[in-house]
Structure formats: structure tokens, C-alpha cells
Amino acid sequence: MRNAAKFIAIFVSLAILSGCFVTTGKYQDKVREAENYKSALDKAKERVAVLEKVIASLDEAMKAGKDAQSEIFADLMQKNKELMEAKGDLSKEMERLSREKEEAISKLRSTYDNLVKNLQKEIKEGEIKITQIKDKLSVNMVEKILFDSGKAEIKPKGKEVLKKVGDILKSVPDKQIRIEGHTDNVPIGPGLQTKYPTNWELSTARATTVARFLQDKADIDPNVLVAAGYSEYRPVAANDTDEGKAQNRRIEIALIPIDIDRVLEEK
Asked: In Å, what is the CA distance from 205 to each residue of 147, 193, 233, 241?
């Protein structure tokens, strides 16, 4: 009996123990399943690492973009400040130039008044015409007061008038004095052609003679004097009447801003 009981106990124990273990096939399945989970987990970790890098790169790019925007904004603000300052400076410069121009026109008006006062007789007789348009003053002198027909020598009466004009003009600062010679369209006669082949030569000679007189007799600075001959090509009246031709035969003394020539030279 004792041996039978012992055998039964061993059998039962083995039966009990056999219920605690899995078969070999199931074990292998569980191993593979675990490996698959591990592989999936590793891949997931890799994707997470990649995403973290992408996110880090995006953060850096956003930060760099913000920094660049801040720098651009700061640069724009600085440029705007500089433009506003330049605008203010330009406005002040324009105001200064405007004041200077008004002062120059006012001084020129005083010169105009002096010329009219000292040349009343000649103006009334129609020998001289004085005009002022803004910052340009012109003294228009007909031929007969200065020259004999076909000549470029100033007559005594003309010298008296030019001396009056010169004494007034020399006190005007920062102005160029341009002497222009003009003629009618009548050709130079045969007797004068050896000296003045055309009206070009005659008009230029007369302008030069007046310029030299103003320099020598009125002490005007030659640096502000300009002599130019325009022949018959800038008439102020029609050449089909004696009266019109008489108006075209003239000397015009013009006061103009001295900077005009500088601008032309720069061009």
C-alpha cells in the first residue's frame, strides 16, 4: 500500500507540474511576437528621433526668421529716420534758397528802379526799354542811341548812357551781365563787307565794344561780362517795316543769375 500511495503521489505531482508549462511551439510564438514588438518599438523610436530633429530645425529656422525680421525691421526704421532727417534738411535748404531768391529779386527791383530813375529821358523817347521778369533784368537800347548805321564805334551820347547804366549795374552782386548784339535782316552793304562780311560780325563787334566799355569806363568786373552776337536771328519785331527794323537793331544788356553758366558747363 505504501508503494502504491507513493506512486500515486508522484503521478499527481507530475500532472500538476505539467499544467504550469507551455508547449515549445507556443513559446516560440511568444518569442517572435516579443521580437516584433521590439522591432516596431525601435522603428518608432527612430521616427521619433527624426521628428525631434525636424522640430529642432524648424525651431531654429523660426528663430532665425524672427531674428532676420527684427534686423530688417530695425534697418527699415533706421532708413526711415535718415529719410525724415534728409527731408527736413531739404526743406530747410529749399526755404533758404527761396529766401535768397526773394532777396535777389528785391535787390534787382531796386536796380530796376534806379535805372528807370536815371534814364527817364531816354525811356520817354523810346531809346531805352527796361524790363524785369522775376530774377532777370534787361536794358534794351536801340541802335541809334549807341551806333551809327553799319558801325561798331559808340557815339558820345551812347557813352553817357552806358556810363549811367554801368555805374548802377556794377553794384549788383552775383549776377552775370550779358551784352547781346542784334541787327535787322538787311545785308551788309558792299562798302562795309571787308570789315563786317555779314550781320554776325557786326552784331558781335557791337556787343564786344559795349562789354569793353563797361569794363574800362564803368569798372565792371570782366569775369561777369559776356558778349554775344545774334545777328538778325532773334528779332523782336517784323522786318517788313522801317519801324520794325529799327526795333531789331539793338543792344540788350541782361542781368541773369550767375549760376546759369555753371550749370551749362556741368552739363
From this structure: 11, 14, 16, 25
